[in-house]
Design brief:
The protein is of the alpha+beta class. The chain has three domains: 214 residues, HUPs (Rossmann fold); 80 residues, Up-down Bundle (Chorismate Mutase Domain, subunit A); 112 residues, no CATH class. Helix content is 39%, strand content 22%. The protein contains 15 helices and 23 strands. β2, α3 and β3 form a beta-alpha-beta unit. The protein is elongated. The chain starts with 7 loop residues before the first helix and ends with a strand.
């Protein structure tokens, strides 16, 4: 017999996160989120904290009427209501379900502030579906851990207070209360993996194993416990090889680890960079094609929207974007900052050493890209030095060299980005100088 559902389960979840200042409830209008909203609204003293949030994905014609239904329900319960409109069109390589989820969570994260909580209505059958989907996709421990009951979200926290509640208990509560809810017709379509599991597979599984939602949820918790221990190990290994300044990994230190430990660190690296967790096959290619490559080679491994490559002792993960080409530009007199490419700008700032202000102001200043073969004489060093050699000495990766602007004063090479100033233009005695700084423009 299904145990009756009460608001005590909500109270218990909120107590564990020290009673948040404001409570947002993800409300789709479906039966599960309707039950969650009603349970929360039934708790004395909580109504003033509650806001129901409907996310309009713009994917179905019925969504406008669903939004109206959700607003009326929230008003009838005496709680606040917010409608969020998002663009849920899938990017190349992204499933419609993934696109909708990403768009929804991005919008909700902006809403949830410090000391706030977002409550969502996933239940034990949802957890069962998630574990099975991860299993069929070859997920590791992290995937098989499925959904946590509590996690950081936005600047606050996300709670799933119904995660250990059986679906029949939710449906029974809705019938007892006489709720009216919306039914998404797309939930009946089997072209979505989760719908196929829910509609065609789970009923058969439950005929054979009636308690499989409970037992699989228990397995997910075992996986989550194991993952927590592995994550702590991975974090310790990761910090021994991670260079925070440029977000690279030390290849020498990484390759001193055993193969499975390397894989843990690479995954931890992707997580630290905010990237989608790579498949095992991709991690193995990083090991075999990039880590194992010759020191003087420049292998490039392309992933989704990024590429992995090496230079000397460092492993880089870079956005896959078009090269940032420096444009030939004259620097207008009196202007302190100049955009030199799509993603870079140069600024001249007062300094006690550098190019004398008088030289700077009286010259025709041109910024241009490298063409190859340029040389420069540096202060305190004899002879002229090829830029290629200087870049190698400084450990500048090859892909960064091509976007380094060259600054000419009256057609003479005066500076290379903010790295070097020609001895011909450098002054350490004249206090009235300028210094160049190169900034990345956030895209």
């Amino acid at each position: 017999m299904t145990e009756p559902l009460t608001a005590q389960i909500i109270e218990s979840a909120l107590t564990r996160c020290h009673n948040p200042k404001h409570i947002y409830i993800g409300y789709s209008g479906g039966v599960d989120s309707h039950v969650l909203l009603h349970l929360c609204a039934s708790m004395p003293g909580l109504k003033d904290k509650i806001t129901a949030v409907y996310v309009h994905h713009g994917l179905q014609a019925e969504a406008e009427s669903w939004a109206s239904h959700c607003q009326k329900t929230a008003e009838s319960l005496g709680v606040g209501f917010i409608l969020l409109r998002v663009n849920a069109v899938a990017d190349p390589g992204e499933s419609p379900e993934e696109a909708a989820r990403n768009a929804r969570y991005t919008a909700l994260k902006l809403l949830v502030g410090a000391d706030d909580a977002l409550l969502v209505a996933q239940h034990r059958d949802d957890q069962l579906e998630t574990v099975l989907l991860q299993l069929f996709r070859g997920g590791g421990l992290r995937g098989l851990s499925a959904m946590p009951e509590r996690m950081a979200f936005g600047r606050g926290v996300m709670l799933r207070p119904l995660l250990n509640v059986a679906k029949p208990a939710i449906d029974a509560y809705a019938r007892t209360q006489g709720f009216s809810w919306v039914e998404d017709p797309s939930n009946l379509r089997h072209d979505y993996d989760r719908n196929f599991l829910r509609n065609a597979v789970l009923p058969l599984l439950k005929q054979r194993w009636p308690a499989c939602d409970k037992t699989v949820a228990r397995s997910a918790r075992h996986c989550a416990d194991a993952q927590a221990i592995i994550s702590e190990l991975a974090e310790n290994l990761f910090h021994h090889v991670f260079n925070a300044a440029d977000q690279t990994l030390s290849i020498n230190r990484l390759t001193s680890y055993e193969i499975p430990q390397q894989q843990l660190v690479i995954r931890q690296w992707f997580q630290a960079l905010g990237l989608k967790m790579p498949a095992l096959a991709f991690v193995e290619r990083v090991q075999s094609e990039v880590l194992a490559a010759r020191d003087d080679s420049d292998p490039v491994l392309f992933g989704q929207a990024y590429n992995v490559r090496r230079y000397r002792d460092r492993l880089y993960c870079l956005k896959s974007i078009a090269p940032d080409s420096v444009r030939e530009t004259l620097w207008p007199a009196g202007q302190t900052t100049l955009k030199v490419s799509d993603r870079q700008s140069l600024s001249c700032i007062p300094s006690s050493a550098g190019i004398s202000r008088e030289q700077w102001q009286n010259a025709t200043i041109k910024v241009t890209a490298r063409t190859g073969g340029e040389k420069i004489r540096l202060p305190g060093r004899t002879g002229r030095h090829a830029l290629k050699k200087l870049f190698q000495e400084a450990g500048i990766p090859p892909w960064e060299r091509e976007s380094m602007p060259l600054i000419y004063l009256d057609d003479k090479l005066a500076a290379v980005g903010d790295l070097w100033v020609s001895a011909e233009f450098y002054s350490a005695e004249n206090q009235d100088c300028i210094r160049l700084t190169l900034q990345k423009i956030q895209m």
